[in-house]
Design goal:
Length: 583
RNA sequence: GCGCCUGUAGCUCAACCGGAUAGAGCAACGGCCUUCUAAGCCGUCGGUUGCAGGUUCGAGUCCUGCCAGGCGCGCCA
């Protein structure tokens, strides 16, 4: 509809220019927005305000001239001038109805799919040396929601779980693993690795207290890097266990990552020397205090001197910058990315600016490829400080999820005690996990946010339980009526304000998804679904569906309910929530 | 010191590319269950958008300067 209106306005502009009312150079991009207030119609443009000055006319006069020159269109019922010179468009009822019918008739809810792109999305990317903690939640959840949305819009998405499976701390872990293997049975060892966090602490303790152990650990790093077979075997064993922990968390969270999406830092080891050689060949590299660096003019350090990107240490070792460059090249070259999205902590903003600039400078990534760091803020506790356990340690993700489910179970069994135990458990899972995910997704990605169980599990406000509940209410209508959601027919009759408001919002699903995909901001979808759920609840209170006598109106309301249900369900699935039929 | 981010109602958060009267929820107060799930709906109260300038038809949004908080800044990732 926006495109359609823009075309109309451009046509009107052209005729005003042809008539000499507007100077030929006065044309500029037409901006059209949805109105916030129903009294301003459905869409508005500020074009008359923008062009008033170059045209030498009063905005309202220009608006009037534009309206007079506007071609007729059956989708537009009325055009008005309002305020200082806004042009307001009122959508024709028939047109809205046809949009609703189109959505209802299509498995994809008539969401348009644009030109498909190959989008590489880097998200989750935990460090395998430790267990996943709350710091990994945001990347994992937000990245997954955006990935699902991109796929729904028809893009080819390549997930990249860039796990930390390399680095000096592995020497310590392998030394400890080796030591324990000799002292314990396989079963004991497996149990011990079950608590990776404890395993890491124990290894660290050994490292700190025993010089002998530390020496062995450092030796193992060298052997590992040299490709020693025994050492690699140990390393793989360790990573397998660690990865299986991650996968358990993903499964529990309902995140779409699988083992085949893992491509860790170590995957680029063989390419690192080549990256440095290529940078040298391009003449980008210079040595500084023994390290191989690239200096780019736009990056300055604290003294105003050029800030280096170090790609090789003085001792010959490589760094994460080197790995990231290799990954950029792989994603552009081998994976054929048109777009790369990095869901990584905001604190690495400078690093990514440098990487992106350098990757293009070095020709590792084509100029046209979009590189975007989708940074996010910190997850804080109710005190506004970084989320920690009572004794100040990091909170394991799995513990957080356990608590969420327990709390949800308590709430669910209180409200719906009549359901059987299995169903209570499964509802508690959807509600508890959904609440944690939704609390994160519904906030603006770039800012810090406060994690609060009570708030996210509340049935009121912009929460997962509220959305899930709204969906069960629609589902319940159809269950009660003994009808399938696709067994509705007839024409829409939207007479009540509540019906119209809901309908008008429902047809915006596609544009919302488009902005989620463009900006990597799932909170836009959350806000939309919350809105739809609220409008439905209002409709549900004010417009009886099943008990109404008029059969045509009943069908219309059933259709509206069906489209609401499908939109809510699809939206929740894109966010990675599990819609429930009952709760 | 330089750079990035943040500052919106008592609290938690919104506000699409600069657009019309800055919106929700919680909390407080008041209504609505013989009728499709009240985990709901309807209403009242609550704001100098950190401060001061500027740009313009119009600024929470853009620019400048302050104030407050967070983060980053050469061989960790």
């Amino acid at each position: 509809m926006k495109e359609r209106l823009i075309a109309l306005i451009e046509s009107a502009l052209d005729s005003l220019i042809a008539a000499g009312t507007l100077p030929a150079d006065a044309k500029r991009p037409v901006q059209i927005d949805r109105t916030k207030d129903k009294s301003h119609g459905d869409f508005a443009t500020n074009i008359a305000l923008m062009l008033a000055k170059p045209a030498g006319m009063k905005p309202r006069d220009l608006a009037e001239a534009l309206i007079a020159a506007l071609p007729a269109d059956s989708a537009v019922a009325k055009v008005d001038i309002a305020g200082p010179g806004f042009i307001n468009f009122f959508q024709a009822e028939d047109f809205l109805n046809s949009q609703l019918d189109a959505a209802l008739a299509d498995a994809h809810l008539a969401v348009p799919r644009g030109a498909p792109q190959t989008v590489v999305v880097d998200y989750s990317s935990p460090n395998l040396a430790k267990e996943m903690h709350v710091g990994h939640l945001r990347s994992t959840i937000i990245g997954d929601a955006v990935v699902r949305t991109l796929e729904f819009l028809g893009h080819q998405v390549v997930r990249q779980n860039h796990v930390g499976d390399w680095g000096t701390q592995f020497g310590m872990l392998l030394a400890y693993l080796d030591e324990q293997k000799h002292e314990e049975s396989a079963a004991e060892l497996s149990r011990e690795l079950g608590d990776l966090e404890g395993f890491y602490r124990a290894a660290k303790q050994r490292f700190d207290e025993s010089e002998d152990f530390a020496t062995r650990a450092r030796g193992l790093v060298v052997k590992l890097q040299a490709g020693d077979a025994d050492c690699l075997k140990l390393w793989r064993e360790f990573n397998d266990v660690s990865l299986s922990h991650c996968q358990a968390v993903y499964d529990r969270l309902g995140v779409s990552l699988t083992p085949s999406d893992v491509r860790g830092e170590s995957a680029y080891n063989d390419d690192l020397a080549q990256v440095v050689a290529d940078l040298t060949a391009k003449g980008l590299l210079s040595e500084d205090q023994g390290a191989q660096c690239v200096f780019m003019d736009q990056f300055k350090n604290k003294d105003g001197d050029p800030l280096p990107v170090i790609v090789q240490k003085a001792d010959g070792g490589y760094l994460y910058a080197t790995t990231d460059l290799a990954a950029l090249r792989y994603r552009a070259g081998t994976l054929g990315a048109d777009r790369m999205l990095y869901f990584v902590d905001q604190r690495q903003a400078l690093h990514f600016q440098q990487m992106f600039a350098l990757a293009k400078l070095a020709g590792f990534v084509p100029e046209a490829t979009e590189l975007a760091h989708m940074g996010f803020g910190t997850m804080n506790g109710p005190d506004g400080r970084p989320f920690k356990t009572r004794d100040g340690g990091t909170v394991k993700l799995i513990d957080l999820l356990d608590e969420a489910e327990q709390r949800a179970y308590a709430l669910v069994s209180e409200k719906s005690g009549e359901l059987d135990e299995d169903e209570l458990r499964s509802i508690a899972r959807a509600v508890g996990i959904g609440a944690v995910k939704y609390a994160d997704l519904s906030k603006n990605r770039s800012s810090d946010y406060i994690f609060n169980f009570d708030q996210m599990l509340s049935f009121e406000g912009n929460t997962a339980p509220y959305l899930l509940y709204a969906y069960t209410r629609v589902a319940s209508v159809f269950r009660k009526a003994g009808l399938a959601m696709d067994a509705v027919s007839g024409d829409f009759q939207l007479n009540d304000d509540a019906e119209q408001a809901l309908a008008a919002r429902l047809v915006q699903f596609g544009e919302v998804l488009q902005s989620v995909a463009d900006k990597g901001q799932p909170h836009l979808l959350c806000a939309y679904l919350y809105d739809v759920a609220g409008l439905f609840s209002s409709f549900y209170e004010h417009c009886p569906i099943l008990s109404i006598d008029d059969p045509a109106l009943k069908q219309s309301r059933l259709k509206l309910a069906a489209l609401t249900a499908r939109t809510l369900k699809q939206g929740m699935e894109l966010l990675g929530l599990s819609p429930l039929e009952r709760m």
